[in-house]
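Q: Please design a sequence for this.
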């Protein structure tokens, strides 16, 4: 279990750190800003999970491998951005892989710390979406998770499969493969076919709600 969690965590960290660094470069941040966004995108979800389940200090802070993976992803993106930018569309698929890794790792670790199945599934989702939310907030964007096609729902579904497999006493490896597969499959279908949740559509403004313009007739 520890090795499985480490592989899932570091894999998700690297993928999301690249996505954070690419966002930073597109917003023309300096190298420090690129590294900050890489670390935030790659680690904040896991840090949030660890703090909530009492695994302190969080692995992303206690283990230098997390910072090293994040820094490596940030530096690769900063110095070779023209090359990595050619794979910008492919980043959607890498992002889907990272989401699957983190959703599974979050649920597995929460279960290992004795949380209830429902809370373990929710923490799996939080692990998957936390870093991306902070990344977008830091560059003043609406978080992708609030507007992307089946993003948080895919993470929740993958984590739910992990929890269900745990309740059925299946091995953690089987649970990880099944949960990650479900999460990735949902993101794949959402990206390919544009699946999304219903979007809020405010009603058109009525005459009473239309902005009133004060006319100053003085001097006319």
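A: Design:
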């Amino acid at each position: 279990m520890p090795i499985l969690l480490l592989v899932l965590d570091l894999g998700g960290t690297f993928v999301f750190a690249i996505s954070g660094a690419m966002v930073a470069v597109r917003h023309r941040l300096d190298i420090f800003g690129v590294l900050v966004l890489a670390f935030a995108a790659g680690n904040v979800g896991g840090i949030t999970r660890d703090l909530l389940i009492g695994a302190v200090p969080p692995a992303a802070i206690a283990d230098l491998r997390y910072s090293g993976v994040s820094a490596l992803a940030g530096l690769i993106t900063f110095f070779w951005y023209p090359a990595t930018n050619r794979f910008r569309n492919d980043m959607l698929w890498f992002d889907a892989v990272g989401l699957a890794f983190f959703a599974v790792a979050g649920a597995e670790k929460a279960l290992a710390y004795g949380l209830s199945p429902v809370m373990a599934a929710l923490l799996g989702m939080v692990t998957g979406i936390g870093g991306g939310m902070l990344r977008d907030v830091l560059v003043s964007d609406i978080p992708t998770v609030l507007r992307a096609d089946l993003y948080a729902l895919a993470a929740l579904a993958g984590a739910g499969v992990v929890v269900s497999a745990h309740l059925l006493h299946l091995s953690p490896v089987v649970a990880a493969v099944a949960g990650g597969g479900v999460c990735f499959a949902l993101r794949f279908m959402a990206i390919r076919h544009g699946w999304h949740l219903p979007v809020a559509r405010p009603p058109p403004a009525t005459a009473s709600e239309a902005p009133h313009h004060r006319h100053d007739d003085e001097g006319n």
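Q: Thanks. Anything notable?
A: Residues 2-193 form one domain. The chain has a mean pLDDT of 86.
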